[in-house]
Amino acid sequence: MCEFAILYPGPYQYYITYKRYKKTATFSNRFNQTEVDDEEGEMERGNETCGMKPTISFPDLRTSTFEMETAKSEMYYFLAEPRLKIKGEVLEANGIVLKTMHPGWLGPLSNWDRHLKNTSKLGYNMVHYLPIQARGDSGSPYSIYDQMRISDELFSDLKKYPETNEKRYKMLKVVLDKMEQEHGMLGVTDIVWNHTANNTKWLEEHPEAGYNLKNSPHLRAANEIDAMLCKLSDGIENYGFGKNTIENEQDLDKLMEIIEREVIQGLNLWEFYVIDATGLLKEVQDYIDNEEKGGYGGSGTRIDNEAGKRHKECDHSLCQATNGSGKSELFTGSAEKDDIYVSRLGINSLIRESLSAWDVNELGRMVYRNGGKTVGSLDVDCLEVEDTFTDENAKLHNVPCMVAPIRAALPDAMFFDQTHDNETPSQKRTAEDALSNAAVVCMSVSSTGSVHGYDELYEKQHDIVHEKRKYFYHENPVDVGIGLAKKRLNLLHREIATFDEVFVSTDDDFIQVHRINPTTREGYLMVAQPAFRRNSNKESILSAPIKLYDCEAEHVMSYKLEIKNKENRNSDKYLTGLSSELIDLGPPYLKNNQDEKGSYVELRLPPGFGPGSFLIVKTVLTNFRLDLDWKIKSSAEVPFLCLDLAALNTVLYRCEVEEQDTVGIGSYNIPGVGPLSYCGYEGWMTHLRHIIPNNDLGHPLCNNLRDGNWALDYVVYRLQKYSVIYPKLSHLISWLTERFALIKNAPSLLVPKYFSMVIYFSYNEAKKRAINLMNPDFATVTGFRASLAMTSVQLVGYTPSASLLPNKEMKVPSMAAGLPHFASHHMRCWGRDIFISLDGLLLTTHRWEEAREHLLAFASVLHNGLIPNLLDSGRYPRYNARDATWFWIQAVQDYVRLSPEGTKFLSVNVRRRFPATEEYVDWNDDLAYSRSSTVADIVYEILQSHATGISFREFNAGHRLDEHMTDPGFNISIHVDWDNGLLFGGNIWNCGTWMDKMGSSENAKNRGVPSTPRDGAAIEIVALLFNCLRWVSTLSAENSKDFPYTGVHVPFSALGESPLLKTCSSSQSIDHTDDQKLFLVDFGSWADLILSSFEKHFWIPINPKKDQRYSVDTSHVLRRGIYRDTFGSAVPGADYCFRPNLVVAMVISPRLFITKHARYCLSQVRRLLQGPLGMRTLDPLHPNYNPNYNNDDNSSNPLLANGANYHNGPEWLWQTGFYLRALIKFFNSNTDEIISTFYDVIHKSAFRLNDYISNKSSYRGLTELTNIDGSECVFSNPTQAWSSASILALLRDIDTFVLEYDIKLP
């Protein structure tokens, strides 16, 4: 938020300056291959079988230099309205009631005062007078002879005209001052920019100001056509026309053919569409009309026929006019062009005319469009926030205030019943319509205008050039025409200037306009029957009585106009109107009544109400609390002060599956929209984020709120159900119940507004409380980081079917892998997902207790050396994941490093779900939870089990456990190859890593065939193992009390030719256990063995001649200069897939990678695998690449059927965080490189992710995956734990890096 002072009214423009790379800056053409392999490589090869390749790619990273430039954003505009005053009192813009008067028809200045006095008597407070400068030969007030001189006719009654303009101005000023001080009216005059008299001396002095082919070259085409037509006319006798005239249609057709052939075709007019734009902008900017003049002591200007002028010229001319009110007559025919003129020039209102409406519906549309807000509008009320401001000029510092965003709005209107240059009601509709039309205009939320003669009922429009008669002076103007009604309407319009809410309704021949004060809720309802020609003699009745709910009504006025004589009373000297009678119809029928919607006042029209009639009643709400706005906002924070994050999860979130699982109810269903994404506040906010800023009261949710109180009751009812689990919710329930009871007493039109306010303010306080319960550094965060932090609250909650522990009495919240698909039962808690997510969602947010509970819950069910893939509350966990165990150890390591508990956590005792025999017993068996181990014991048990080898068959193997898996897939096997220290596992029939899609289509014959088995040594598992070994090696040396282990015991026979045998020292003695020789492999030696072999087994060199240095089968290589995905897979070619799993390995164990190789590979990742939001899960070059995931695909294609391509192209978000973190680790050799990486890659990626979570996600999270180029995938979880978690971890790493290296990011 920025502050700047508004010193004067008028148009303001603003923009934001920022730093960016110069657009001329060059990118390196990838990394120089000689830096990596010293020799040129070969082109990549592959099969283009997919037919669908990504179109979005990112340029390679800058690695040496960068150059920044200052740029600025798009220009934005807003308008500061002037504060007009009459005799020191503020005149509201919507309280202006203006009358246009012709100076020539007023007579000399000495005659003006009595006409101005009469104008004041009719309730007008502003007078618009046509140009008063000296006129040219035509006599038109818009054809000016001398722009600087007041016309002689204003002084025609004097013996001698005032000699100087100064004297003339002074005489005019006396009249205008009296007009304000005695009659209470301000003045407005015209500025005429594009008219001047043909005989003006000024034009002789400045011929360049007239249109000619030099200053207006765009007229050249017209000039040439005119010349050719003249030439054609001169020789017309040569074309065989009798008497050289057009006598019939055949002659006309013949002439048109001649013109087409000899004029149009001969001129090559298409050439005029080819322009030279050089210097065009400068020409426009340099063009200044020096003869513009306006003001004359008045309070505003009217710009005549603005559409004919260029706004840059006008902008220059108005830049000094900062204290008046600008009106403009635009004929652009485009709302977009209108907006340009208004925003650039500071035009306060555009002139609109009600008589241009052709029927009742169009008239109603004009009233609604010309100003005001819908009844119950909720834009400002719900968007304002508390803040402070400083005004150095006023010596004010940090003054508390409320800040609301500026909402884009249509240009204000000055709504005329008739303008001076258009036809009268008698000409356009009927004379009787003058009354009803005036009433409609009076009720518009805008300034209003009329023309002298409208109230007197002039029969026709008078020619402002040739009409020489004067206005007739009436002793009492109230008694003439519609004078009395117009006076009352004008005074009412001024009274209700702040009644800026409006409801407009049309019903056949009737129009209703209801103006309401948004604070007091008082209102005025007008009902009119316009007298269009088609219905002027028609007897009409309302289709149904008008019902005014929850209010009282009081009659204000009712009138009908009767024309006595349709012909005007002619006068040679004065302008007069039609003979008429204004009939007071008396009060309408008003009766209190009641129906199923509540009490109401029934309004029926009074007798005699017909075309041209109107009535107005005053409305006042009954049983309405005037301070309801304040009441709703008051104490909104108090109910949350006692709530913890688990309770806040129920208040804010809970998808339908969680809700049904916990309290047995579903999501609220909005008719026409469907169920809410969340049952809590966030579900409502998904829609309110659109409704509030756009004031979209026509949204289906608003309709539902007006129709009944179901939504209000639902909000309270669900919390009441949860209060059994969280008793402290009772405070919030009481707070909501009190406010909803008040809202239920309000009119139904206001319910959307007040419901929105309750949810909005309560939601914000709930979020504040949640943020304050997390990391103290988050206390002031907003925007992207706050949104990500709130996903921690969103995804961690109590669900009875998926508690962390099997005993349902222990209500322990658990983390959902994603919502809504992974919300309950055994599908909620996934081992790998939770421990990939734990760092970001629970550790960066300082949710130490929740992190601890998850670590211990999974530790308790360790079985056969494995952490389960699916927890199922510990009841029937499933162990079909090779990676979950290592992500658990990584999470333990992170928790020990970051939490206050530190290494003491390793000594915590854990009750074990399974006995030491590893027998798979039921969770409530006596053997279950009968033994304990420390966390350190469990870490060591994992290492020892993997070192020795793991081999078992899944419990309950068969179709009941997995309906798609084939029998061999249930066999779990993991071992270490001691020649290289790498961990191998799995087979071609199961999926042991996160890429776990199992084929399931009979039609495609891929049932039981894993799409991405990744058997062998997976690169991220190797990195996790290596990092674990280095960590426990350090623990063993430095914290032997907390971790009393030094290595693993390996059967001597398993070592074979292992390098460990050659490097063992005397300290690594050979033990004898049960006559079996065991070799003690210390953790550090195992880690060193992996380090020494990693590059050999995973790097694919650029130069194929170097393949012999690495374990590379050249026949399977598709892409070079990358790290392979696996090593030792039984699936031919699978090892050589280019996938983003390598970035996870780089973040976990950067030490494994040779820096220049890693940097080159990351450049490949950026170019080929990075998508707008997620990472492509397979190289687009690969024949199996298919980027669009469709789980409903029922084709016979085994690569696609039933979503078989889940991990073969779709773009997953969780690895984006790891990719960006890898950049930080490998692109930090100098400040230029760090800043370049941050701005060019990380900042832009974060911007796209922020846009997604803030504007595109209905679940307010980061999605699981997207289809090609970031396009939406409807089968994806809309919010996924590891997607948000990886970005939170990234932001933490950036903070740490910047602080550690003292980097100043510009």
Automatic annotation (TrEMBL):
Residues 800-1288 form the Glycogen debranching enzyme C-terminal domain. One of its GO terms (biological process) is glycogen catabolic process. One of its GO terms (molecular function) is 4-alpha-glucanotransferase activity. InterPro entries: 6-hairpin_glycosidase_sf (IPR008928), 6hp_glycosidase-like_sf (IPR012341), AGL/Gdb1 (IPR010401), AGL_central (IPR032788), AGL_glucanoTrfase (IPR032792), GDE_C (IPR032790), GH (IPR017853). Residues 90-293 form the Glycogen debranching enzyme glucanotransferase domain. Residues 481-719 form the Glycogen debranching enzyme central domain. PANTHER family: GLYCOGEN DEBRANCHING ENZYME. This is Glycogen debranching enzyme. It comes from Zancudomyces culisetae.
